[in-house]
Amino acid sequence: RLGPPQKEECVTGKYPPPQTAEYQVPKYVVNLDLPAADRWTHIVKERAKSIVNLLQKFKDFVKALDAKLAEKIFDYVDHNLGNLTNTLPQPYADEIKGIAKATEIPLGEVLLYNIFYEIFTV
Amino acid sequence: CTSIVAEDPAGKLYHARNLDFGLFMGWDFKNHTWVITEALRPMIMNIEFQMKGQVVYKAVTYAGFIGAITGMIPGVLTMSMNERFNLDGGYLGIIEWLLGDHNGKWMSFLTRDVLMYSTSYQQAKETLSKDELLAPGYYILGGNSSGQGCVITRSREKSLDIWELNPGKGVWYLLETNYDHWKAPLFVDDRRTPGMRCMNQTTQQNVGFAGIFNVLSTKPVLNKLTTYTALMQVNAGKLETYKQHCDDPCWPW
Question: Do the Cβ atoms of B5 and B13 come closer than 8 Å?
Fold first, then answer.
């Protein structure tokens, strides 16, 4: 069984959601007047733990599929994939490098996260 | 994902979306959740991109992700992007890029470019229709006046279809999930039918943040992959984003 049958009534009265952290989303400003490498620093420094956590969950997922393959993939990501950043258009290449520097997360992993969309369209 | 662009009887445009991500990337059997989806939810943020202290555009993203999958230029346009799964997918685009073919645009960087440089709905529509891409996808675009709304179905090379609002002929909303609108959705993943049923039940008279949020909060449009719902109204420059949760019983996708 894939889930409950699609018999849901159209819900009403859900808006606005409660003013709690469970539903609310923080707002940040990215200053485009700053050099690209510095634009996201104030955000990602504050959120580095959650980025690391996400990447770790992804690593765990790949490891669970095939531990040896995962080791090879992430060795490549950490040591080689980062070079791909140099071929990306600006200012995005520098923004990604800036995030890697600010969070001390390997550049290849930050890049991998930023190209998730292209990877997962199969 | 589910994106909706809709027009009220006065010709005011609303654009909203559910961002679903994390399919098949680890199921937590204890909590009945997707592992990656749960990790993404605390990372959701609204971003105002400013120049000289003025807002240039707004976007919703995850911490550390620089691309724009949902965004707006206040007063000009609104935009969202949905995944289009295809064997001729983005992984091929990445391989081509690695081999030195840099003609294609990265999906979420192109949307940043559109938000940064577009001066009109028409200009954005042309860019999103014509530029070569690294991955297939659906671009859902809304403008600032009556009838300006469309879903652009993209292969990596070209636009396959542009589906447009036509309020004069009764097409007052467009609802796009992750399937070509002229084909039936996968039978185990039909969010389109309940979504359209709820939009029809809402009626054009009740189009607004509340009405559309209710549609996007109805299961299975809302499902275990849904991280957030974003609501946009271009003329007012309003972008509201809410984290979403789907309590059991709830479809996994």
Answer: yes
Average pLDDT score over chain A = 92
- Mutation target for B interface from A14, A59, A77: give the one with most B CBs within 10 A: A14
CA angle A69, A72, A77 (to 5 degrees): 125
A35-56 mean pLDDT: 97
Q: Do the Cβ atoms of B167 and B146 come closer than 8 Å?
A: yes
Residue that is written with structure tokens 């029809």 in the block:
B200
Catalytic machinery residues of B: 1
CA A59 – CA A75 distance, rounded (Å): 11
How distant is the Cα of A60 from the closest Cα of chain B, in angstroms? 9
Tell me the per-residue pLDDT of A77-94, one tens digit each, with 9 for 90 and over. 999 999 999 999 999 999
ipTM of the complex, rounded to two decimals = 0.95
Entry field: residues in chain B: 253
Which stretches in chain B have pLDDT values below 70? none
Please judge whether A118 and B134 are an interchain contact, meaning their C-beta atoms are less than 8 angstroms apart.
yes
Angle at B207 between CA B166 and CA B83, to 5 degrees: 70
Interface of A with B in 15-44 (CB under 8 A): 15-17, 22-33, 40, 43-44
Instruction: Check CB contact of A65 with chain B, cutoff 8 Å.
Output: no
- Look at residue B131 and give its three-state secondary structure: coil
Question: Strand, helix or coil at B70?
Answer: strand
Residue A4 has pLDDT above 70, yes or no: no
Give the side-chain half-sphere CA count within 13 A for B37: 28
- Contacts of B228 by beta carbon, 8 Å cutoff, 6+ apart: A25, B18, B19, B41, B44, B60, B241, B242, B243, B244
C-beta atoms of A29 and B47 within 8 A: yes
**Would the CB atoms of A15 and B214 count as touching at under 8 Å?**
yes
Q: How far is B38 from chain A (nearest CA, A)?
A: 9
